[in-house]
Amino acid sequence: MNSVEATVAVLAAAPEALYVASLGTATSALREASDDGPHFYFGGAMGCALGCALGVAERSPERDVICLLGDGELLMSAGSLWSLAGLAPPNLLAIVLDNSAYAITGGQPTVTDGRFARAAAALDSLASAEASTPTDTSARVADTPRPGLIQANVTLDGPLAPDPFVNPDWVLTRFEAACGVPARPDSTPRSP
Ligand SMILES: Cc1ncc(C[n+]2csc(CCOP(=O)(O)OP(=O)(O)O)c2C)c(N)n1
Fold first, then answer.
1. For 139-162, how does the pLDDT look when each residue is reduced to its tens digit (9 = 90+)?
2. What is the rounded radius of gyration, in angstroms, for the C-alpha atoms of the chain?
């Protein structure tokens, strides 16, 4: 399963969720799979995506929130898994697109050896699952309790067509609207 196929499967199982995607493959795959839906794409700020998703989940308790993470991203911010378990938002699911590499900086191995699901399982109050096919990925998104983490094992592919470096104004304006935040007078959607 490649990262776009995994993300298509996630979207099929949770089409109404609010999505936050970390920099790199997670952002490109979500842009590709959702035809540039109004999601929170990180163009930079490595290590901040799960923390951001915790805030989104707190402010939108009635919405399902899904955070798509690279394995390098989650490795950099592994402490945020403890925050996810400790704060235990009942509406937040983290999904690691685990390609075992820092893909966009040249494919250096993260040497995490697929241990994210086991690390999550060791934390009380955090559900944990693993998926390696699109069918399994959709099923796990549907049946994994929140808060939880799914390790989606994906292939290491070449660069995806959608640029991972997005315009923050474009991201924020559309995501605030998706969250139901009233538009600010100065907010003008720009190009990605
Ligand atoms: C604090 C910080 N350190 C390093 C980088 C450089 N950097 C950008 S993307 C990336 C790799 C991200 O790895 P992963 O989350 O696994 O995503 P993938 O590259 O596989 O898409 C790195 C190291 C950065 N943007 N910020």
1. 999 999 999 999 999 999 989 999
2. 15
What is d(CA 28, CA 141) in angstroms, rounded to the nearest whole number? 20
90 lines ligand 1 (CB under 6 A): no
134 CB near ligand 1 (under 6 Å): no
Annotate 151-179 with DSSP letters as a single string: EEE----S--SS-S---HHHHHHHHHHHH
Q: How far is CA 122 from the centre of its chain?
A: 21
Q: What is the pTM assigned to this prediction?
A: 0.96
pLDDT in tens, 74-101: 999 999 999 999 999 999 999 999 999 9
Report the alpha-carbon angle 15-18-23, nearest 5.
Answer: 110
Query: Which domains does the chain show, CATH number per domain?
Result: 3-179 (3.40.50.970)
Ligand 1 pocket: which of 28, 77, 102, 108 to mutate (most atoms within 8 A of CB): 102
- DSSP class of residue 147 equals S
For residues 184 and 164, give the distance between their C-alpha atoms in angstroms, rounded to a whole number.
Answer: 26
Residue 190 has pLDDT above 80, yes or no: no
What is the four-CA torsion angle of 25, 148, 75, 171, rounded to 10 degrees? 40
